[in-house]
Amino acid sequence: MTPTVGRIVHFYTSNRGVQSNGVGDGPYAAIITQVFGDGDDAYSNLKVFYPFGEIRDEGSVQNKDFSATPDRYWVWPPRE
After folding, report:
1. Residue 51 sits in which domain range?
2. How far apart are CA 54 and CA 35, in angstroms?
3. Is the bond preceding residue 27 a cis peptide, omega within 30 degrees?
4. 58 part of a folded domain
5. Domain assignment of residue 3, yes or no
6. How many whole angstroms separate alpha carbon 25 and alpha carbon 74?
7. Which of 12, 35, 43, 55 lies at a C-alpha separation of 20 to 30 Å from 64?
8. Is 77 inside any structural domain?
9. What is the pLDDT of residue 74?
10. Which of 1-5, 8-12, 68-72 has the highest mean pLDDT?
11. pLDDT tens for each residue of 47-78
């Protein structure tokens, strides 16, 4: 599925410096705010909602299946 502005995704990162209270690598709720490129491998800018009210911008993040940086990526939330 191609990323588009306004879609909700799950963001994962191993950057311990931005995490609070030991919540781990994620998932963190995020909204796609901008998309660069075409197709599934496009880069996306995200507004990430960390626990306890912290909101951060994450730039140039790719879907896990296409990411060149396996320690920082987003995935579609599971459907139940």
Report:
1. 8-72
2. 23
3. yes
4. yes
5. no
6. 11
7. 55
8. no
9. 95
10. 8-12
11. 999 887 789 999 999 999 988 888 889 999 99
